[in-house]
Amino acid sequence: MGNEIDVRDHLAICDTVYRYATGLDQRNWELYRSIFTDEVRVDFSSYDERTNYRVPVDQWMAQVVPLFTGLASTQHSMTNPRVYLDGERTICQMYMQADHVLDPDDPDSWFVFGGYYTDELVKTDDRGWLITEVVLSVYWRRGKPEIMPVARERGTRILSSDA
Fold first, then answer.
1. DSSP string for residues in 39-90
2. Considering just the CA atoms, what is the radius of gyration of the chain in Å?
């Protein structure tokens, strides 16, 4: 898989990727935004074939925030990090499971999937390790994916009423 990376950098890279999950699950948008370069490539095509592009990170945030605002709860679990150099690229790959809950009292409104995140990161002088590319590889799904557009609509309504 390439060359190994220094243990201090390994830990810092893992911390950046873990903050991805923490930012989403705690709806801490400042934290979530802080882990990305100003432009990010997002490839979620194994989940949604339309999501494979490079965008300004604020445009990505505008897509993520309504969806997660509309969900009652989420939990992104990431384990078994593999950090390595691939030529000039620094890669972190982790197992992941993402639980999405629209209504905690209704098990029919839950959607869970699992697979891998493969992230490319760059080291900056002032902000440490930042994600420049996120690739989601979904291997299995369970529950009701139909809750996701419902959550996005709900989140958009919530955010527009807050404005």
1. EEEEE-TTT-TT-EEEEEHHHHHHHHHHHHHHSSEEEEEEEEEEEEEETTEE
2. 16
Quick one: fold of 3-162?
Nuclear Transport Factor 2; Chain: A, (3.10.450)
For each of the chain's 163 residues, which pLDDT tens digit applies? 456 688 999 999 999 999 999 999 999 999 999 999 999 999 999 999 888 899 999 999 999 999 999 999 999 999 999 999 887 889 999 999 999 999 999 999 999 999 999 999 999 999 999 999 999 999 999 999 999 999 999 999 999 997 6
Classify residue 126 by its DSSP letter.
T
| Domain ranges within the chain, ordered by starting residue | 3-162
Classified as helix, coil or strand, 135 is strand
pTM above 0.85, yes or no: yes
DSSP state of 13: H
Specify whether the backbone of 95 is left (phi greater than 0), alpha (psi in -120 to 50) or beta: beta
Q: Looking at this protein, which amino acid is placed at residue 156?
A: T
